Amino acid sequence: MRRTARVVTTALVGMALLAACNSGGGESPAPEPAGGPTSSPAEQTTAPAPSPTATTDGGDDSDDGATAVPADETAEPTDGADYSTEPQNDPGWPSSGGELLPTGVRVGSHEGYERVVFDFEGTGTPGWRVEYVDEAVEEGRGDVIDVGGDFTLQVIATGVRYPEGEDENGRVAQGSYGTDGADLIEEVRVTGIFEGQNQAFIGLDEKAPFRAFTLTDPARLVVDVRTTDG
C-alpha cells in the first residue's frame, strides 16, 4: 500500500507541474516568419525614384528660340554640285518641294568658302534656283532693294507656305541678317514669301563662284561662296 500511494503521489505532482507550465505565461507568441519581422502597411516606406535629368545639346551659336546649329554644318553636297558663276537650280525646278516654313538664316566662314544656310520647318525638301542678278528686285512689288556689297546673288526657294497664326508669323525668316565672321559676304536679305516661293539676296564684295544644294533632317538650303584663298 505504501508503494502504491507513493506512485500515485508522484504522478499527481507531475501533472500539477505540467499544468502550471501551460498556464503561467499566457499564450506563446506565434513563430516568426522566415526572413525576419514584417512591418504593417502603414509603417512601410518606399524611396521615390530619381527624376530624369533633362539635357540640352546646344552649340555655341544656339540660343533660346533659335534654330540649333546642325551637326553637319560643313557637309559636302551629295549630288556633285560644283562652284560656278553661272545660274544653278535643282533638277526639278521650278516644281514645289513640299510644305515648308522658312525660319532662319545663318552665315558661317570656313576654309576656302563662306556658307549661307537657310533653315526650314515642315515636310519635304525645298526646290531652289540661285543666280547673279544686276538688281535686287522684290517679287510681287517690283521694288529695288538696297543690298550691301558690289554683287548680288538671288536665292529662290520653292515649296514654302504662308505662316499660320501669330506664333508662326513671328518665326518666319525675313529682313536683313548680319554676317559676323564673313569677309566676302556683306549681307543676306530675305524679302519673304510670295506665291509659294521664298526670295532672298546675298550681297558680295566680288563675283565669286558659288554652289548650292539641300540638306535634310531638318530641311536646309545651303549656298557656298568660294573665297579667294580656296
Descriptive labels:
Immunoglobulin-like, mainly beta, 4-stranded antiparallel sheet, AMIN-like, 6-stranded antiparallel sheet, AMIN-like domain-containing protein, 35% strand, globular, 2 helices, signal, 230 residues
Task: Please characterize this protein's 3D structure.
Residues 33-57 have a biased composition (Low complexity). Keywords: Signal. Residues 1-19 form the signal peptide. It is globular and about 45 Å long. It has a domain at 89-226: Immunoglobulin-like (Sandwich), CATH 2.60.40.3500. The chain contains two helices and twelve strands; from the N terminus they run αβββββββαβββββ. By secondary structure, the chain is mainly beta. The protein has a six-stranded antiparallel sheet, with no helix packed on it. It has a four-stranded antiparallel sheet with strand order 2-3-12-11, with no helix packed on it. A two-stranded antiparallel ribbon has the order 5-6. Helices cover 12% and strands 35% of the residues.
Short description:
By secondary structure, the chain is mainly β.
CA-to-CA gap between the ends?
Answer: 134 Å
Shape: globular
CATH topology descriptor of the domain at 89-226: Immunoglobulin-like
CATH architecture of the domain at 89-226: Sandwich
SS elements, strand count: 12
Chain-averaged pLDDT: 75
Give the helix proportion (percent range): 10-25%
Walk across the major sheet and give the strand order.
1-4-7-10-9-8
Q: What portion of the residues fall into strands of 2 or more residues?
A: 25-35%
Organism: Georgenia soli
Signal peptide: 1-19
Domain AMIN-like: 102-226
Protein name: AMIN-like domain-containing protein
